[in-house]
Amino acid sequence: MKLILALALFLSSTILYSPAKVIAQIKQPTTSGQPTQATKKRPVFVWAKKPSRLSNISGRRVGMGSRNGRDDCLVVETPLIALVPFKERNLVNKQLNKSTPIDVWGLTTEEHPTFWFYVPYIKNFANLSAEFVLQDQEENDVYRHAIALRTTPGVIDVPLPSTVAPLQVGKIYRWYFKVYCYQQDQTIPPTYVEGDIQRVILSSSEESQLAATDPREKIAIYAALGIWYDSLTILAQIYKANPQDTSLAADWQSLLQSINLGNIATAPLVN
User: Fold this and answer.
1) Is the dihedral of CA 101, 98, 179, 74 positive or negative?
2) What pairs with residue 13 in β-bridges?
3) Which end of the chain, N or C, is less surrounded by CB atoms within 10 Å?
């Protein structure tokens, strides 16, 4: 009789508790799956290998005029800035009291990339005009376009139109963004920024890595590969379409801060 009673108690406890163990085993994987959007890494730019045949001319990421060694344009709190990485050149014998030349360049996979600039000057200022120029390695104009200044300072985009000959892989192109502060006096040089861009081809492994990801993930991957223009443009386009998205704002700030442009990381993207 005692044996029968003990067996009954054992079977009862098994029926009551074993389902709970099974449920716990089923639920466990859901807590260790893919990270949520909030836990994804912010995009951070990583320098790629410096392109060969980069221009010997020093680039300029921050705009200022060259007349008498000063800026002849209107005084602004934040100057004209190209949204592109830069590096100081490693000179064997650095001369004192002279600025170190810098390389201003970025990579793209696009035939017709988009260029980005912070422009502090607005169209309400008299006598101002601006233009964007892209040249090949022989200094021939590939594209020259007048830029309409906006009504408020901010980040603007300058897309290379599809009607222009596509960038050739491996070639170095030189771009300029110039602001003419005194249209009536052509002897006064413009305030400008300049740098290089090179189109590259992704490897098969890089292509497969990007093929199975959403746009937000592609931004981080391009940044980690050192492909600046693609990362910035994808993020900027998404951010412009969703300006109230705080997560996108944090991504934008992270990407700009990674190339030491935190001072304009909260500047508006203007249409």
Assistant:
1) positive
2) none
3) N
Q: Which two tokens stand for residue 268?
A: 């508006």
C-alpha span between 181 and 147 (Å, rounded): 13
Side chain identity at 265, as an amino acid letter?
A
Structure tokens at 264: 């304009």
pLDDT tens column, 137-187: 999 999 999 999 898 999 999 999 999 999 999 999 999 999 988 766 667
- Cα–Cα distance measured from residue 250 to residue 246, given in angstroms and rounded to the nearest whole number: 6
Tokens of 258: 């990674």
Gap between the terminal Cα atoms of the chain: 88
Tens digits of residue pLDDT in 22-64: 323 323 333 333 444 445 689 999 998 877 767 777 888 998 6
Structure tokens, 69: 């060694």
Q: Is 174:127 a contact under the CB 8 Å cutoff?
A: no
Q: Which of 131, 89, 118 is nearest to 236 (CA)?
A: 118
- Average pLDDT of the chain is 81
DSSP state of 69: G
Question: Residue 152 in contact with residue 180, Cβ under 8 Å?
Answer: no
**0.85 exceeded by pTM:** no
Both tokens assigned to 193? 């920024």
Model pLDDT, residue 27: 35
Q: Which two tokens stand for residue 177?
A: 């963004």
Give, in words, the CATH class of 39-90+100-264.
mainly beta
**Longest Cα pair distance anywhere in the chain, in angstroms?**
114
